[in-house]
Amino acid sequence: MRLISYNILDGGEGRADPLAEVILAQHADIVVLIEADDPIVLDRIANRLGMDCVAGVGRSDTSAILSRWPIRESVNHGLLRPAISRSLLEATIVDPEGRPWVVGAVHLPAGAAEADEARREPELAELLKIFWRHRSEHQRHIIAGDFNSNAPSQKVDPARCKPRTQEQWKQNGEMLPRRVIQNMLDAGYRDTFLEVAPQIAAVAGTFSTQFPGQRVDYIFGHGFTAGQLSGAWIEQDRLAKYCSDHFPVGVEIRAGEVS
Predict the structure, then answer these.
(1) Bridge partners of 229?
(2) Would you say residue 259 lies in a domain?
(3) Is residue 237 a part of any domain in this protein?
(4) pLDDT tens, position by position, 144-155
């Protein structure tokens, strides 16, 4: 199974076809879209991909999950949970062998300041509470999207970041907060890109496409062994640089057995 996560920036208005081209090039079975706020653009992308689609309209933006396999059920946690300020969508997808793939699409608050990380922490705690059932039942699942936070393992060069991020880095005492991603790891989730390509993950960026100094877009897996992760990547070609302010990230997972 190949899955990508892609923040398409403000609904992707006027960019539906090039966004679809970027996604098609990833040969994905499942696609997580963040900031999929324009239903016309989302419908056009889904039609171009020939995928089933479900959208979760949150309090300030929309996350969507697209799949070339049937989507059996979905839950829009972004509207059900007041603690979620942006969007959080969950879907169960059934592959041709009848195996379920549970996928979460999340968008956490933006910003590189300590106050921004403090806003993200309770929302992440709510996310972990929502997906606790899957962890307790040892059900493999994936949580992907724009976490707007930095990995503990990443070597962030502020000179490669947006000017606003550079300012916040200085205000934070020349550091960027990383607690949110550490909390995901502490809960037993695998940072799939880090597992597959640790040296690249330490320096690669997904945001922004003009100043790619931070990796804030992640695909986390739970219930999968490291051996089942057969590939991971960040698409940074010219079209991807034009289409959004985020690069898409991808992972390939062999189905195997639940760990």
Answers:
(1) 253
(2) no
(3) yes
(4) 999 999 999 999
